[in-house]
Amino acid sequence: HAWQTTFAPLRTWLSEVSWEIAQELALQYRAFRLAKGKVTYDDQIELVVQLLRHPVAGRLLRDEGYRIILDEAQDTDPSQFDVLIELARAPEACQHWSHDDSAPPRPGHFCMVGDPQQSIYGDRANLAHYQTVRDYLKASGASGELTLEVTFRCDEAIVDTVNRLAPAMLDGKDGQTEFVPLKSRPGVGPGQVIRWMPGVPSEAGETDGKLKVDEAALAEGRQLAAWLKEQGLEKLRAPSWSEVAILCPRKRWFPPIERALRDAGFSTQIHSQRDSRGAQAAYAWFTALLTIAVEPENTFETVGVLREVFGIADEELAYFSHGNGAVFSLEQRPTGAGIVAEALRALYTAGKEAARLPLRDAVIHLVKAVWLRERLRGIAEYEQEDCDKILDSLLVLSAKAEAEGRTLRQWVDALKRDFDSTIEGEPVNRDAVQLITCHKAKGLQWHAVVLPLLHRSIVPNRQYPLLIHREECHQPMVAFSSANTADFKYVLELRDRHELQRLLYVAMTRARKTLVVVDDGLLHRGVGINAFASCLNLSADTVSGYWKALPDRLTPEKKSGGKTEDV
Question: Core-most of 98, 282, 444, 539, by most CB within 10 Å?
């Protein structure tokens, strides 16, 4: 308490100054990019915003008469809203739309569909801003609002369960959205929701019933795999195993479940991999290694290789350079002693030797020289990435590039051009159980959905420096480490909890016929911090009774007279 009280003024001052400096740096860096003729996606949005605010360009753009239809509006960020609404306003509109209620979008020129209950991308979208836009449109008198309550996905039991459990989460308090009850579609099937409870394995007795997180996950996975095998597709009401999905809030939770399923004889398919090539560790490390081989003067990329591939700490790098970045150049043989100097000499030697070889041989030599495959295997499970497979495909492509007559530099340029390209998803294997994160499950559906690890703590993914938006403040606050977040602890915890509650709502509404919730409190020693089970507010009177009364057995369905009924 004394530390918090004493240093609070300093942390507040540092946060405010850092925010000012960050803005200045961002503006200077944007000017640098524009001078080089290169723009990011965010640059494109911001530049269009500026055009729309220009008295001549803005009028010309609005005069085009665009008709905007915006889906997933709750995931739209404030700048994107600026562009879309401005384009739909009258040509003569002059002020920004939030300050000029007299010039809303023209009738019939702007329509948005959004569900704040499914707002699960808080790092990009802003639920409060979505509500501001919604209020603006309603108050303008130029548009009406329709509430779509009927779900055409979920059967009756699932709709009923969501309507019973969700109000305690989505309560409309402290910035959380308010739950809109679902209605079943006409001719809906009965459906089923099961609360299945795994037991505590015998080996837990040696540790007084206390299992480590990974041990508990593996024990749950093994019991779940055996249970699914025993139930079979008929009781799950699924036509194939590809219509059975296991959803988790974190992709790092999948390895023990996948291992257990495979040991039980199931085929599995994980769909929560990276979206772009550059987001894959194998592609990024491989490209960086080849880049410094053809660009030895690229000290920025060299430091990246030292940090990421060699795992050298920032402190070691800072101490080695003493503020002189030129020491990381590979144009001359590096000198000095210590881990950094040794790594630099290894990279220098590998680059020189590779320069004398044909393209494919040069690539193979570089990969072996720095033990790239072995280093990637060390992070493969953590990154949920088949690093061997990706690296092998890149080596095959290197042979193809050589056959096409490309030089190593030309191929490196091609790798960098493809860095942000989207990876095509694998086709669904009909015989494989689907494993996918709750975020990626949004917009999808399966006949049967299983929600395991309900009581496992969900650790927030925070990267520092952390920008903290507070609705009551005009400028964000900056936290430099977890120690600095004490000043904003309530804001952060509330934000995380609200988003997890909405994420759980999304996960529960992915099932068409069967929803299985795994009540694993015994394995995880109660309800973990920020666990899905804590988001459910199971202790609430309106929830606890219904939760405990949920059935614990699956039943097949039968069709009679064209209708589906429970057996």
Answer: 282
